[in-house]
Structures are given as structure tokens and as C-alpha cells.
Amino acid sequence: MDTRSMAIQAKKASILMQGVSTELKNSALEKIAEALLAKKDAIFEANRQDLERSAAENLAAPLLKRLKFDEKKLNEVVDGIHSLIGLDDPVGKTLLARELDDGMKLCRVSCPIGVIGIIFESRPDALVQISTLCLKSGNAVLLKGGREAALTNRILVQVIEEASMEAGMPDHWINLLESREEVNEMLALDEYVDLIIPRGSNQFVRYIMDNSRIPVLGHADGICHVYIDRDVDADRAVDIVVDSKTQYVAVCNALETLLIHKDSAEKVLPSLKEALEAKSVEIRGCERTREIIPCKAATEDDWKTEYLDLILSIKVVDSLDEAIDHINTYGSGHTDAIISKDEGNISRFLEYVDSANVFANCSTRFSDGFRYGFGAEVGISTNKIHARGPVGLDGLVTYKYKLIGDGHIVADYASGKRRFTHRDL
Amino acid sequence: MDTRSMAIQAKKASILMQGVSTELKNSALEKIAEALLAKKDAIFEANRQDLERSAAENLAAPLLKRLKFDEKKLNEVVDGIHSLIGLDDPVGKTLLARELDDGMKLCRVSCPIGVIGIIFESRPDALVQISTLCLKSGNAVLLKGGREAALTNRILVQVIEEASMEAGMPDHWINLLESREEVNEMLALDEYVDLIIPRGSNQFVRYIMDNSRIPVLGHADGICHVYIDRDVDADRAVDIVVDSKTQYVAVCNALETLLIHKDSAEKVLPSLKEALEAKSVEIRGCERTREIIPCKAATEDDWKTEYLDLILSIKVVDSLDEAIDHINTYGSGHTDAIISKDEGNISRFLEYVDSANVFANCSTRFSDGFRYGFGAEVGISTNKIHARGPVGLDGLVTYKYKLIGDGHIVADYASGKRRFTHRDL
Prior knowledge:
The structure is a homodimer. Chain A has helices at about 5-15, 20-40, 40-55, 60-65, 70-85, 125-135, 150-165, 180-185, 200-210, 235-245, 260-280, 285-290, 320-330, 345-350, 410-415; strands spanning about 95-100, 105-110, 115-120, 140-145, 175, 195-200, 225-230, 255-260, 280-285, 295, 310-315, 335-340, 355-360, 380, 390, 395-410, 425. Chain A is α/β, with parallel strands linked by helices. The longest helix of chain A has 18 residues, at about 150-165.
């Protein structure tokens, strides 16, 4: 089937999904969880073939690890489905109710977005997580996973589709794209696809934005900062910086650049260097940093780089405002933290740093849907439009205005015969 | 000054505007209202020159009328500013507050979007309305109005800027672009401009979408429908259709296609034809319509056309579901209404018609920010992302996550030493 026909049938399914009840969605999720467990041998076998082929093609070890879908991963996704069942349905919430006039009532009600195109990396567990989030939020989905996981993805979609249809979900709500050409075709289908969520490199996200009219939800870079203010507890500052940098180095909410007030530099930098070197972190410092601790020299490029690696750039600043300005200039609007005892400085930082997640006295690694208690996330958005920060179920719905009248016409208001009451209900 | 420098200074202003208080914003609005009244002679004189030049260039009469900025228009915009002062500040609202653990609190707080580029038609009153909405929502703005209104726009921006700076607003929060080339330059400045709101033709909106990575908020077409169900009061149906079609014909929420259940056609169409002809409306009907009332034949193209004129296409359908399907296929997701006595059919229509505004038993012309009681609107969005339907102040803000901890690090949760409490506050 060609991509256009697939998108058209997804659109049809998406209309039917507008009216699917919470009960039906939860029962479909339950059946999916059961089916994944019941068919695990076939799933593991498909994954074994993917792993074997990818190993033969010399796929790097960390990618092979991400590709693996075993008993542990299966149990994790099944647990995820059960917690998803427990979450509130984001659809059908009345967000505003207002009487416009006698007998005429306006409601703003949350509803699914429609058809969502999601392009994700090689982890097969991401396929299950993403498609079940779409189901719970009532959206049809076009999925494109990594080529390495082709067989695993195919059987996972088949199991999910069969189990959910058995529960009564509309045909074709879930669809799998298998090639780059199909992704390119999808980018032109703005008539049928309402939103694209690309999970991948900065370059890839920009490619999508440049080649489609469809709105894109995603994040490009994660150039995250910690700023150490003038008056701090050195041990606490070191702990937070080390956690932000090293707790998991290859993720978007890991620290990349440390800014430190000149009055704290001598107190904190020596012990920080020691702690970072114990974790094999390479330091690249500005000139003033290098006057205090020996390290490589940072260049202008370092302030713009998402290392995703055991490297930290450090800059000494003269003031809070210089730190804020540096972050707003070089940052990516993802996650930035201040370490300070000064309430005024903290609130100034949280106010003026223009990022999705602004933190005080804790690690940047907390910016995450699970840690925020959203249950699950499709990704972290550095968009300012629609959804910002960790995007859970709430980011997968929109709303519509329902207005119920009793023969009301506008001419009566234009002529002054009737007047609006505009009374919130 | 070149467009890039203008965007950079707008971005700087937008950061300062994140922290501007409600009091300051309201006092700036008050000063703007006063200054517009105080400088009305100079404004009217600039407008007179625009009108004179445009008349000499043979601008069409309806456009000249829109261009005119006189005492009446001035009083309307000043009234608009006063009602804007009375509206709630959309910035700084706590949308979610949650304890993640002892001493660690997460808040989702509304904040301005940043820099908004707005391209609008020749009405100078739109400039005042749009820029004051941006001020109240804390956004810096790049404005581009119609070329015909060049002198009027220039003096209005000057008056607004001076008055607001006197009140304490940051420099350069409002900026005027004066040429198409500058608009094209703006489209490439996704680093500084966060959102573009184009008000104009379908073709124009698509041009913007195809030539920029910046998110676009707007609507393309307004192909609005009324569906007359099988069991209706004929007089009421005629009143609603006539109002939807003729109350103001050149606007996006005016009716373009009437769908009517086959059981109502003979009862309603003859008197509807009479009422529409009294308003000089041309009818284009499907074959079954033409068996009941003589009229021109509708073609496939008619179902896809936004006439913005005294023309109505009519189609007889066999069922509610055929009507819903027609609307979801040919409509533009703007405003669609059902006329029915059947509660079940009404709720089915409101559920499955995938449009921003879905109405029962009232005119399509009600879809409007003022009529909804939003106070003012920047436009009506048929986007499903971010803001849908009439967009008022709420559509001009986003949110950020503020997390305040007390030395918390992620390693403690990964090791199991600490657990999240996730308690809503």
C-alpha cells in the first residue's frame, strides 16, 4: 500500500477515534499488554534476526544494545501500558464553559489531534510506548522506526493492531512505514497528517522542518547549563554539577556548559575538577577558569556544542545577568539550572532564562516526563508553540469549541435586539 | 535598520518583557490610549495622505473603506484598549503545581511566547488591536501592514512605542516592517522569531508555511457548512441559513455549502430559496436539489470553494453520516453547524465533525473572539496545534516548567536511595 492511501485510511480511523470511550481505549491497552506477553516468543525471534543481521552489518555495540528487545524490555513496556491505563483520559475534558446568551452555551472541549507521524530511533520498546500513548490520546499514528529493527517493529505493530482491533478500535489506527522514501512522501501529506514528531539528530529535525508544511513537535539540541551563583555551598554545587554532567551522559538533559560567578570560582573549581576527573570528564575552560584550574582552552564553538560526551565547558562570569544572557544566546531552550542561596537571584533566573525547564538547586537530569510524574512522554519539546518541555498525553490533544444554541442568529446581536451575557458556568 | 538587527533587538526586548508586571503593562496600555487621542490630528493627516495616494492609484472602494482611520475607528480602538486593560493577565498563571519529593517542587507557569511576527491586511485599526494584544501578553512584535496604509502605520507605531516606553516598557518591543523583502528576510530568522501569524489569503498563508521553519498560526480557508437534519422546524432552519450566509458575506465564518437531509429537502428548500433570493443569493444545487427547486448546477469544484460572495451551494444527503463525511472531506475545519431536534444526532455531529468550531442550532457567524467573550482576537485558527478557533490572549502565551529543589540529584533516584512522591499541590 502506498503512503498516501495509508495516510487517508489513518485519517478515516482518526475521525472514528474522536468518539472512542475511555473504557474501550483502556480495554484495548489491556489486550495489547496481554498479546505482547502471549506472543513474546515470536517477537523475541524477530528481534534475534534483527540483531543477527545488524551484527553482521557491524552495527556499533551501543546501538545493538538499544535494538535488543528481551524479557526485561518486554516487562518494562507492559508495566508502562498498565500505568498508562491508570492515567486520566486527556480527551473530553471541558476546559471552558460559558453562557453566551439565554439558551446558548459554549464549551471548549479537549479532543484528539488526529493523525500523528512519529519517526523514532532503533529502540523497539519506543514503538510500543509511542503507539500506546497515541491510542490513549485517541490519535491515529504513522510510525517509522529504525531500519535495524525492521522485523521486530513489524511484528510489534501486527500484535498491537490485532489486539486493539479485537477490543473494538477502528481499523488502521496504527500504520507502519518502512522506508525513507515513505517518510519523504508523508512530509507532503499535510492534508492528512496533523503533526510530526521526529526523534533524532538536530540535523534530521531541521530537515523535516524544511521539507514539510506539517507542524513539527520536537527538540533540536539540548545545550543545558548550570550557573553557580556567588554565594553557594561548594559541596552541594559539585554534587549537582557532577550529577547533571555524568549521571547519563548521552542524553539531551545532560549538562554541557557550566557558568560560575567570579566570586565562587576559586572556592568551587578545584574540588569540582577533582570530582569530574574521577568520572573521566574532560574540562574546557575560558581564560579565567584556566587561571584557577589547569585545563584545555574553550573556544567560541564550545559554547554552541552539545557534546553528549564526557566533556564540560566552563566559563567564569561577572554577574547573574551575564549568565542569563549567555544562556539565552548560546542555549537551546531545553533545561538550565541555577545553584544559589539568594531567593531574588533564583527568581530572576527562573523568570528571564527563556527555556522549557528552568531549575534551582537541583540536577538538569530531572527534566523528564517520568520524573515529572506525567507517566510517559513522547519526547521533550523545545518548541514554544503547543507543547513545551516533557510532552505526555496532554501534548497529544487539542480542543474544539462546541456551541449549542436554540435558533440564535447574529443579526439579532448586530441590530441590538439581543445582547450577549458572557456568563462563565 | 536591517530586518535581522530588528529581530535581534526584538528578541532582547522579549526577554525583558518576560518579567514586566501586570500593572506596568496596564499602565502602558492606558498611556497608549491617551496618546492616540492626543495625537489624533497627526494620525488622521497621515491617513488622509494614504487615502489620497491610494485613491489616485485606483484602490477599490471597499479597500479604501478599510484603509480609512477616522474618529469612529479611533474611538473603537481606544474602547478596545480599555477592555483589554480589564482582562486577566494571561502570563504568570500556575497551571500545575506538584511536589516531586520532599523539598522539590515543580510548577508549570504560563509565560509569553517571545517574538511574534504578524502580517496583516490594510486596516490600520488592526495594527493597534494586534500590538496591544501582544503587549498585554508580554510578547515583542514585528508588524507588517498593508502598503496602502504605510504612513498611518508608521505614525501609529511611533505613538504606541513612545507612549509605552514612557510607561516603562522595554525599548524595541514593537517594530514595523515596511516592505515585502523585509517579510521574506523575517521568514529566515527562526533563531529570533518564535511564531508568525499571517492574516491574508489561503495562497499567502501557504507561501509563508512553505518558506519558513517558524511555526505559523492561522487559517487558510473558511469553507463552512450548515447541515439540516431530517426533523426540523423549517422557519428556524431558514433563519439560521440566511444569517450564516448573508449577515456578513465576505468573512471566513460565513456559510458556503448547505447540506440537507433528503427527508427535509421538500419541506425546507422552497421557502429557503425564496428567502435567499430576497437577499440576492445565487444557489448552486446538486441534482436532487434541482429536482425540488430550479437553480444552477453545482460541480465538484463548488464543494471546495470559499465563495466569500452571495453564492450558496446545496447538496441533498441521505444521512447524518454522509453529511459528516462530506464536511470532513471538503471542509476546512473552521466552523460547521447542525440544525436538528435530535439530541443523539447533535452530539454525534459535534463529536465527529473535525472542525475548530462545531455548532448546533445557531448561525456559523458566532465563531468569533468577541462573540465568545474573549475580548479580542488575533484571528481564527484552523491549526490543530497550539491554538484552535478564535485566538485571544490565551493563544499568545506558552509555559515553562520551574523546578525548585534543595540539592536534589538524579543519581539518588536511580540507585533507589530516594523515591518520587509526585503529590499534586
